[in-house]
Amino acid sequence: DTEVTQTPKHLVMGMTNKKSLKCEQHMGHRAMYWYKQKAKKPPELMFVYSYEKLSINESVPSRFSPECPNSSLLNLHLHALQPEDSALYLCASRGQRQGRNTGELFFGEGSRLTVL
Amino acid sequence: GENVEQHPSTLSVQEGDSAVIKCTYSDSASNYFPWYKQELGKRPQLIIDIRSNVGEKKDQRIAVTLNKTAKHFSLHITETQPEDSAVYFCAASSGTYKYIFGTGTRLKVLA
Description:
The structure holds two protein chains of two kinds.
Chain A: E1 4-7, E2 10-13, E3 18-25, E4 31-37, E5 44-50, E6 53-57, E7 64-70, E8 73-79, E9 87-97, E10 100-107, E11 111-115
Parallel strand pairs in A: 2-11
Antiparallel strand pairs in A: 1-3, 3-8, 4-5, 4-9, 5-6, 7-8, 9-10, 9-11
Chain B: E1 4-7, E2 10-14, E3 19-25, E4 32-38, E5 45-51, E6 56-59, E7 62-67, E8 72-77, E9 86-92, E10 100-101, E11 105-110
């Protein structure tokens, strides 16, 4: 399995809802990422987990709450979002070969979020 | 702060012609430079990368060149085909977890 799988593909939520985005990879990669991508823009880093510990939080508002239950799973919990949070949320894992970082990011297909 | 400038923002070429996209980075510690292709509605996918100890790398119709002194790196696509139409992002990393992405180039290959 050489893929990063994200669910759901599409999500519509109101500003008072609580929802979660899920990401899964079974490539044994130990660094996992959440990116936010607006239309016609590059991916914007939100969080990085390394060996299941939060390594980077790019000053993301607390209405986004990441969680890494185990080395294969990454969640992003959403609560009280704003319409401007509507975007494509991409999960990625960083490649490893023989225990060394290859540098390549493997992206999932993304979860397209619309906040009403 | 660190940034990566990417030009042009849009590029249209005739099928069979070459396309060149250029990036400039600011962080001297950058040592890994990947290029990602993102087709409409799809995930970004790595197409080629280069490390700072190499000046050029080629993979069939795609090549990347790196000038460390000038902090420039470029993507070259030869014999372009309609399926090359996509948004291309360059990025730079200094070996930490962060990747600084360029602003993207929308390439259109006209048949």
